[in-house]
UniProtKB/TrEMBL annotation:
Gene that this sequence comes from: galE
Biological classification of the source: Bacteria, Pseudomonadati, Pseudomonadota, Gammaproteobacteria, Candidatus Competibacteraceae
Domain of life of the native organism: Bacteria
EC numbers on record: 5.1.3.2
Protein name per the record: UDP-glucose 4-epimerase
Pfam families (UniProt xref): Epimerase (PF01370)
Family indicated by similarity: Belongs to the NAD(P)-dependent epimerase/dehydratase family.
Length: 321
């Protein structure tokens, strides 16, 4: 099967490329390398280019017969989306529509979209299921929710079938140590904690220690990148087998606090980690945990790396490399 992966040079996209190649797929990667790395692409077919380049998209689709398309090409920094919403709506919404229009024009009907828990906004109940109210509170989340609604409309009008996978906190690294997380700047907790352990940064800042949680720090649902990729593979198979589209929350269902992450990192690394206390950040809920029973039931998805120590250990191997 031939699969196009947009954003395949980035963190999650590169892991997905590796999995698909291992499963015998012919993978083509399109990436502008604005946030990815060429050496992370483990597929032979790589196209350097902009997702919004309509002529390039027409050329790529015209030269191939794709059985599916996966989208990992979004900007992901919430704070930046508030400071520069135009950048986020242009890339995450408009350029995604360019891709969808190319798919429709070339009659490619299977699409996997990387969505986010940010579409829910402040939770009204935890764990968060797929029917939870959608009330995104920043341009990043709003853009993702716009695309989700766009996909529903494209299915009705053009027959494009899409699976929308809503990540909670992607984390970890390739269990074989070949790939890992390389954001610049880094904003995710686990790599930041491990950078403090390795000496690449002097300390880790904990924003708020007075939340209504057992240790006062925020609780988040961390899902291993390898488990995320397995969910994408199952979603693609669902489309190929005629199961239709849909929306699925992806998390391990067990929340871990910021303090727990730091404590586990100290144990895994054997290093001291200097912690600084900071004020709460606006819009940070006390708990964000996924109800992912639908993915487990309908996709047959079972996370293999739900243990926090294993997840941190894989990320630490990458950090030390």
């Amino acid at each position: 099967m031939q699969v196009l992966i947009v954003g395949g040079a980035g963190y999650i996209g590169s892991h997905m490329v590796k999995l698909l190649c291992r499963r015998g797929c012919e993978v083509t990667v399109l990436d502008d390398l604005s946030a990815g790395y060429r050496d992370a692409v483990l597929a032979e077919r790589f196209v350097l280019g902009d997702l919004g380049d309509l002529s390039l998209l027409d050329k790529i689709f015209g030269a191939n017969h794709f059985d599916g398309v996966m989208h990992f090409a979004s900007h992901i920094q919430v704070g930046e989306s508030v400071r520069d919403p135009a950048k986020y709506y242009r890339n995450n919404v408009f350029k995604t529509q360019c891709l969808l229009d190319a798919m429709v024009a070339h009659k490619v009907n299977h699409f996997i979209f990387s969505s986010t828990a940010a579409i829910f906004g402040e939770p009204v109940r935890v764990p968060i299921d797929e029917e939870h109210p959608k009330n995104p509170i920043n341009p990043y989340g709003r853009g993702k929710w716009m695309v989700e609604q766009m996909l529903e409309d494209y299915e009705v009008a053009y027959g494009l079938q899409a699976v929308r996978l809503r990540y909670f906190n992607a984390a970890g690294a390739d269990p074989e140590g070949e790939l890992g997380e390389r954001h610049e700047p880094e904003t995710h907790l686990i790599p930041l904690v491990l950078q403090a352990a390795s000496g690449r940064r002097p300390h880790i800042t904990v924003f708020g220690a007075d939340y209504d949680t057992p240790d006062g720090t925020c609780i988040r649902d961390y899902i291993h990148v390898a488990d995320l990729c397995e969910a994408h593979w199952l979603a693609l198979q669902r489309l190929w087998q005629g199961g239709g589209g849909g929306a699925f929350n992806l998390g391990n269902g067990n929340g871990f606090s910021v303090q727990e992450v730091i404590d586990v990192a100290r144990t895994v690394t054997g290093r001291e980690i200097v912690v600084m206390r900071g004020e709460r950040r606006p819009g940070d809920p006390a708990r964000l945990v996924a109800d992912s029973r639908r993915a487990r039931t309908e996709l047959g998805w079972t996370p293999q790396y739900a243990d926090l120590a294993t997840l941190v250990d894989h990320a630490w191997r990458w950090e030390t490399r």
